[in-house]
Every structure is written in structure tokens, then in C-alpha cells.
Amino acid sequence: DTVRAMWAAFERFEFAAAAPLLHEDFVFEMPQSRERAVGRDNFIAINAEYPGRWRITVMRLVASGEQVVTECDVTNGEVTVQAVSFFTLKDGQIMHIREYWPDSM
Q1: Rounded Cα–Cα distance for residues 91 and 78 (Å)
Q2: Radius of gyration of the chain from Cα atoms?
Q3: Label partner for 2 (CA 20 to 30 A): which of 13, 26, 34, 71?
Q4: Residue 66 phi, psi dihedral angles, 5° rounding
Q5: For residue 23, which phi and psi values (nearest 5 degrees)?
Q6: How far, CA to CA in Å, does 38 sit from each of 11, 45, 91, 95?
Q7: Per-position pLDDT tens, the chain of length 105
Q8: Is 6 exposed, middle or buried (0-12, 13-18, 19+ CB in 10 A)?
Q9: How many other C-beta atoms can be found within 10 angstroms of the C-beta atom of residue 33?
Q10: What is the distance between the alpha carbons of residues 79 and 37, in angstroms, rounded to a whole number?
Q11: CB distance 89 to 68 below 8 Å
Q12: What is the 3-state secondary structure of the chain?
């Protein structure tokens, strides 16, 4: 539910609404581009300030305990890409996201 709520807030462009879903020690990583954001406020700011209006559709969500994986279609109306995100939760909040954006074929 927590991960779905985060994606729903992002889909509505209500990034600040997602902040309470993130743990105070939150970390975001994108290994392909070597990007890393430490802290929920930094992660929210990055997404709120990212150019364009990207829409997110959760295609698949798999959960086991405190681990959740989502596969999402992300589009700005001209380009559609897929993202795979690995979430770790702690105390009902998102503690860590490790995200991959595979190349489109």
C-alpha cells in the first residue's frame, strides 16, 4: 500500500504528499547513472523540479514482507520508457529505492 501510495502521489504531481511515506533515513539510488539522493526532502525536490510532466503507470507490483518491486511505464506523451524499482520498507515507510531504467528496444 505504501509503494502504491507513493506512485499515486507522483502520478498526480503531488510530490510533497509522498514525503510522509519515506523514512527519515531514506536513500535513492540509480546505479546505471550513478545518481544517489540521501534524505526524503532531497528526493522529493529532485522529482518536483524534474522537467516535463511524466505520467506513471504501475504495470506490475510484487511484494514479499518489507521488499517490493515495481515495473512502471513512464511517459511524457512523446516518449514511453520502463522503470524497475526495488523498494525496502522499514516501519511502514520506504527506506530505500534502487531503480533501473532499461534501454528500449
Answers
A1: 38
A2: 13
A3: 34
A4: -90, 10
A5: -65, 150
A6: 22, 11, 18, 10
A7: 999 999 999 999 999 999 999 999 999 999 999 999 999 999 999 999 988 888 999 999 999 999 999 999 999 989 899 999 999 999 999 999 999 998 875
A8: buried
A9: 10
A10: 25
A11: yes
A12: CHHHHHHHHHHCCCHHHHHHHEEEEEEEEECCCCEEEECHHHHHHHHHHCCCCCEEEEEEEEEECCEEEEEEEEECCCCEEEEEEEEEEECCEEEEEEEECCCCC
Q: In what order do the strands lie in the sheet with 93-100?
A: 35-38, 22-30, 93-100, 80-90, 67-75, 55-64
| Nearby residues of 15 by Cβ (< 8 Å), 6 or more positions away | 9, 44, 47, 48
* Per-residue exposure over 82-103, b if at least 16 CB sit within 10 Å of its own CB, e if not: ebebebebeeebbbbbebeeee
Provide the grid cell at 42. Answer: 532531497
